[in-house]
Amino acid sequence: MKFRLNTAQLLKEKREHLLETWKENIRATADRTFKLMTLDQFDEETESFVTEFVTAISSENFEDITGPEYQKLVTMLGKISASRAEQGFTPKETSFFIMSFKEAVNKYIGQHVKEPKKMAAEIMI
Questions:
Q1: Of 104, 84, 105, 83, residue with least CA distance to 94
Q2: How confident is the model over 58-112, as pLDDT tens digits?
Q3: What span, in angstroms and rounded, lies between the C-alpha atoms of 68 and 44?
Q4: Which of 69, 79, 111, 121 meets the CB 3.0–4.6 Å disulfide criterion with 3?
């Protein structure tokens, strides 16, 4: 679906703004995050995730996350999940990491895609 390629391009172009929005969302609501992990680790996880996510969706494969283009992203998410469990994060806190990213992405899509059908296609990722 051609629309979704626009999302990958938008996320590449707005990468720094997206990262800041995402980090602000986490900082505003996840008060335990920085009691359990360092700022450097947080920055590394968020930046690596955005890089791997954009790389994966740039492949045009939106149906099969078991494909090779998603391998690094899936592996990284497994490591983040295990690391956070060891650090004392709850499953809810760990899932918030991803849900807050989706919220930030949808915000940017909403600002840049005004046509309803296009927007629906974009937010399906």
A1: 84
A2: 887 878 889 999 999 999 999 999 999 999 999 999 999 999 999 998 888 777 7
A3: 23
A4: 121
